[in-house]
């Protein structure tokens, strides 16, 4: 499966996770443009030799820590090769004391920073990946069958018999979707998420729609799983019920901290509970079926329940779509392919296979056993709990089953912590989300994505007061949108690539896509007024947002590109100033009063050897005269222009004066030199009016005005 | 009164309100220092003629508005004299569209800006000043007598007879304090507040203590008056009671807006209600005494009230100090002397005389009439209301009395809006409060002080839920602290200056100071646990804060002064780097990738004609090689140093590298040239990581590192 050609195709697009936004290799056009620009370079009039050794006199020896553990800055760099230094870990500490303290605290919490070189070691073995990525999927089994039966029972207990054919249909759906993703992983070995598959085959907007659906679902996975898990805890300890919201936020914070420490560590935390849950359910199934075998597999008849609705097609479809929430999380592996150890796609495919087998076993086993035992959904107690009591009337087994169920629900949220930042990373690579999501933190985790997920999920959790039942209707619409688009994308993929057996594969994906689309439609319609409308509204808005972000980055890329891009369409009109051949200067020094700070700025200005003008803003005529007197006493070395500002503002008139100068001679580059008194203590900053910052903000909008800040340090 | 010598003394200290912090005249020492520094000036190597006409080619003609009402920047300036431009009003508008919109909105609300030249016209006539400055003082009459009687009645109705001697004592106190301030105003014609008088004669700390007391009292004046006024309104319209807090905040906001429009306009708003209140009380007195004359001034015996406490000295003192709240606000005129029309001190003194006469008349008249009518404080109804009902059993007069009382209570808060910013201004001139309180806004009001008062008062109001009775115990301690210190200061003043009749004046001030001190002690002790402790704790803390602020400004002044100050004491060790004789440069250009932005920064760097080094930070070896390849393609015009940052940070290693360069050659000035892509829309800013700002923040702490921002504008 997965022809070699497909691998090359993926490698060409270069969708490999790298520690940072990588520099693209140089194309021929760019090379030529760079050469042309370089030819126009004018050597500076006075190109002195460098007055300093840029290698810092380092000769490859490693840095030695000084007495107080702080390195002299020179010691923070080692020489790798000529013209190249390597920064050591201490060089990443901020310079300020507060900054260093904060960084130390962060490192104590999340571990020391990891070098980019160790990125490979942060990958997961299959036996670790399985629990990490499957907790979401498998935990759905705890509420999926019940969600389906709770709809069927509305038509009376007789309708419960439909659960077996529906379950069979869902198993077909699971297998179909599972096989589809199995086919997808080798075709997209560097990340086979719905965003990439749909975008690649159906176009950008369907890809973004799939991504939006998945993003909403990841957020809801965290909120719902945490809500259900906390509810399980508060059911056991009712005294904690008023603390539902803080407890949930605490759980989200702990998950965030664990994931900020890095993928592997987080994985280790989750191995045991997931396996324990699977074993617990398997024990229930073995004991239950053994008991049923003892009575010749004769089903117990369920207690009679009166019908509240007629048994129509809509009800059956609703039951089907409700049962389908058992499948949320099946896409986890495909998004996380690059987190596997090499060969990534093979290990991911194997893990996916195990997961689907486990899902089908648990799901089908549970539905069958519930049918055999004649159990009916009740408001007070979950079906799984009822099943546990029937299976283990005595002994600690029932308690163990409930505890592992509660635990895996909490851990299911972790799947989203793996996938959400990765999805944002892929989208940021294409310019659909802010670039900061490309950045890997100290611990090689996508810190910004993790924080974004935690914040959003916490807000949703708090907004819904931590009530699971209010969150559920929003759930599963997004993920089935992604399933549908991804599988429809694979249909197009097979039509295009026509490898061996493509007919069979296309048919399989077409069936999966159709079934997913049916579930999507049913879920969206049946649950619309209960909350699904939020998702229906949010997805298009998110798609619009992603497209706007993309347009901005594309505009910026064109504006900064060196070689002229293809002629812009009617929509994009980008300002293309030519790069200046030669810079002609006018240096302007605003002077409020003559003191050490302003004289330092004047000295700096003079040392540039360019035409220089000093400007003084005076609130009154009298003050202007007094300042000119000082200027004369100093020696009147520079041309001084005084501006009287009768309305007492400083920034406005100065900015407009500079703009006026620029208007008269637009080809000049105005360099405004501002002294900035630097205070050590931040407590003293409110005592100063930050004229320098406000001036810079006002001048920012003027083209051709360069602002230079000359710091004047005051020891306290 | 007030010898000519005293006027000169005040003029020398220069305590005139000017539109902005004024430039001090040049002393001989400074002149010499400036000359010495000027002699060391080195003419730049290549002092071209200025390539631009700094007068913008203006020839004194006035600016013409352009078609869209926006002036071309050149049109915003007129020529006053050679080398001096005058900014017109449009030159104060911010350049950005949002900024202009905000400014327009502000001007619609608060009026067009006033030029500094119109500062004199914003002064008050006496007949306007009287209501503006006396509403606080006169409104106290509405609750002062009742506060005194409410304490006396604790010892039974027999003790109520003591109200007459206590009132006589209070009248003596009022006259004494009034005469004291009458004496003070000509002695300090440019502002005779307790802060200046106490500071001038007793030393800095007593002056600051007086200021702290006054500041707290101004804040409480606003909170208490607004609370009482809103309560009067909600008593009339009980449906508004739940809105007490928002209503009070609204009133404070309206007062703020009115005062931001400027003093005179605000004064006009307050003329009518104050005079109406005075007239209403006078009518009550005339009618009441006429009725009493009808029965031969025989007092009605009060209804018997059982004694709750014995009639001890402490009780009498408490009654006295409670009655003394009638005097809060008497200091208003002395602080506001410069807001009067010329001759300021004479008009202020006359106004103060009127105010004291009115206060004594109303206070003594009310206490006497209450005694004659045998009225007793009751929880449900104020004494003034009881008196109104007795005097006007029928007709609309009672309603008018209550309405004007409610209105003047709301307006009393306005006195604080006049005095608080002025006090902050005087303190800021001495460096005891942040310099921003020196600044006059568009409308020649001390906007920052007004906003500070409104915010603090609103916070206090909200914190106390708008309950008058909870706020009252905090009140009056601060103001009697100021009275005591001010009059004690005048005692010292007379001892020093010994003008004609100084013995009599000294004695008068000594009596006033002693009485004020007694009231202060009684109030602080008797009301300590009811809330006065807040003031007792806050005053020393504020004094400490003011002293710390002063120390900071003094340190900064010494550090930036041109001529060496007196040798610093053991406490102050100020870094005194010599001004650089010549600046030696190294220009450093951090380059992330070669695009139009970085090439513009490189071109700018080269045009400076100084030794230049380019630095590239690469997250990985591979990336560094790729960048070097681009650098070669461009032509390798500058020395390039690559720093591999295996932990992916950019700012930290770059800052440490620059620090290391600085360490190896501390005499070099490093100029770091950073391109900054300027986006027009602020919505796009979150899409960028603001590396430029973060780099500047990191480099701020390094001495000898100058940061230059080269803007690259991108049209959208």
Name the poorly predicted regions of chain A. Answer: 1-21, 565-578
- What's the number of extended β-strand segments of chain A? 7
Task: Summarize the main sheet of chain A.
Answer: 5 strands, parallel
Separation, N- and C-terminal Cα atoms of chain A: 71 Å
Percentage of residues assigned to helices of chain A: 55-70%
The overall pLDDT of chain A, averaged over residues, is 80
What's the gyration radius of chain A in Å? 33 Å
Query: Which shape of chain A, going by the Cα principal axes?
Result: elongated
Question: Helices, strands, pairings?
Answer:
The structure is a homodimer of 716-residue chains.
Chain A: H1 4-13, H2 28-39, E1 77-81, E2 84-87, H3 97-110, H4 126-139, H5 144-152, H6 163-187, H7 194-202, H8 204-236, H9 244-260, H10 263-294, H11 313-323, H12 332-335, H13 344-373, H14 383-391, H15 397-429, H16 447-463, H17 468-471, H18 477-497, H19 502-526, H20 532-560, E3 584-590, H21 596-607, E4 612-618, H22 621-634, E5 639-644, H23 651-664, E6 668-679, H24 691-699, E7 705-714
Parallel strand pairs in A: 3-4, 3-6, 4-5, 6-7
Antiparallel strand pairs in A: 1-2
Give a short summary of the structure.
With 716 residues, chain A is an alpha/beta fold. Helices cover 57% and strands 7% of the residues of chain A.
């Amino acid at each position: 499966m997965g022809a070699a050609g497909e691998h090359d195709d993926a490698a060409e697009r270069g969708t490999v996770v790298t520690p940072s936004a990588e520099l693209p290799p140089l194309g021929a056009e760019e090379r030529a443009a760079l050469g042309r620009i370089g030819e126009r370079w004018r050597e500076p009039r006075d190109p002195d030799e460098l007055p300093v050794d840029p290698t810092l006199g380092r000769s490859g020896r490693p840095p030695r820590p000084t007495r107080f553990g702080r390195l002299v800055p020179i010691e923070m760099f080692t020489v790798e090769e000529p013209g190249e230094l390597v920064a050591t870990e201490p060089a990443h500490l901020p310079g300020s004391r507060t900054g260093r303290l904060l960084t130390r605290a962060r490192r104590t919490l999340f571990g020391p920073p990891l070098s980019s070189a160790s990125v490979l070691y942060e990958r997961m073995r299959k036996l670790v990946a399985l629990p990490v990525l499957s907790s979401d999927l498998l935990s759905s089994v705890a509420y999926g069958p019940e969600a389906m039966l709770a709809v069927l029972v509305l038509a009376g207990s007789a309708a419960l018999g439909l659960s077996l054919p529906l379950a069979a249909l869902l198993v077909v759906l699971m297998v179909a979707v599972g096989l589809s993703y199995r086919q997808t992983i080798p075709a997209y070995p560097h990340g086979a998420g719905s965003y990439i598959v749909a975008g690649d085959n159906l176009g950008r907007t369907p890809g973004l729609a799939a991504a939006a659906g998945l993003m909403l679902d990841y957020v809801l996975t965290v909120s719902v799983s945490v809500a259900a898990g906390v509810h399980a805890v508060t059911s056991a300890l009712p005294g904690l019920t008023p603390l539902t919201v803080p407890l949930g936020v605490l759980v989200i914070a702990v998950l965030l901290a664990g994931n900020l420490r890095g993928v592997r560590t987080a994985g280790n935390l989750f191995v045991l509970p997931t396996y324990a849950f699977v074993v617990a359910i398997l024990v229930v199934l073995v004991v239950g079926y053994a008991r049923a075998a003892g009575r010749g597999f004769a089903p117990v008849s369920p207690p009679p329940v009166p019908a509240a609705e007629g048994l129509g097609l809509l009800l059956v479809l609703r039951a089907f779509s409700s049962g389908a929430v058992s499948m949320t999380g099946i896409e986890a592996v495909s998004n996380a392919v690059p987190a596997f150890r090499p060969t990534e796609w093979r290990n991911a495919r194997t893990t996916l296979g195990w997961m689907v087998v486990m899902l089908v076993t648990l799901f089908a086993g549970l539905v069958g056993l519930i049918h055999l035992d004649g159990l009916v959904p009740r408001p007070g107690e979950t079906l799984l709990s009822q099943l546990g009591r029937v299976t283990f009337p005595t002994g600690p087994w029932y308690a163990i089953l409930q505890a592992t169920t509660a635990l895996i629900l909490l851990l299911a949220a972790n799947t989203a912590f793996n996938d959400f930042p990765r999805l944002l990373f892929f989208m940021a690579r294409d310019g659909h989300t802010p670039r900061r999501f490309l950045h890997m933190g100290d611990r090689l985790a996508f810190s910004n994505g993790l924080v974004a997920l935690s914040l959003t999920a916490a807000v949703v959790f708090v907004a819904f007061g931590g009530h699971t039942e209010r969150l559920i209707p929003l759930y599963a619409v997004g993920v089935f949108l992604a399933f549908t688009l991804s599988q429809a994308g694979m249909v197009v993929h097979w039509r295009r690539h026509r490898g061996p057996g493509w007919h069979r594969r296309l048919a399989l994906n077409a069936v999966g896509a159709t079934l997913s689309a049916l579930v999507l439609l049913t879920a969206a319609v049946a649950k619309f007024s209960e909350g699904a409308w939020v998702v229906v509204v949010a997805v298009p808005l998110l798609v619009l947002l992603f497209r706007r972000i993309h347009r901005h980055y594309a505009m910026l890329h064109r504006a900064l590109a060196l070689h002229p891009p293809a002629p812009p369409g009617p929509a994009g009109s980008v300002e293309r100033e030519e790069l200046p051949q030669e810079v002609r200067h006018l240096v302007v020094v605003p002077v409020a009063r003559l003191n050490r700070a302003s004289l330092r700025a004047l000295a700096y200005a003079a040392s540039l050897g360019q035409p220089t003008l000093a400007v003084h803003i005076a609130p009154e005529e009298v003050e202007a005269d007094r300042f000119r007197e000082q200027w004369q006493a100093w020696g009147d070395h520079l041309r001084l222009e005084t501006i009287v500002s009768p309305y007492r503002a400083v920034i406005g008139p100065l900015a407009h004066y500079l703009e006026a100068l620029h208007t008269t001679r637009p080809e000049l580059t105005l360099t405004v030199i501002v002294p900035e008194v630097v205070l050590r203590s931040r407590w003293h900053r409110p005592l100063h009016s930050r004229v320098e910052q406000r001036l810079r903000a006002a001048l920012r909008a003027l083209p051709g005005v360069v602002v230079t800040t000359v710091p004047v340090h005051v020891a306290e």
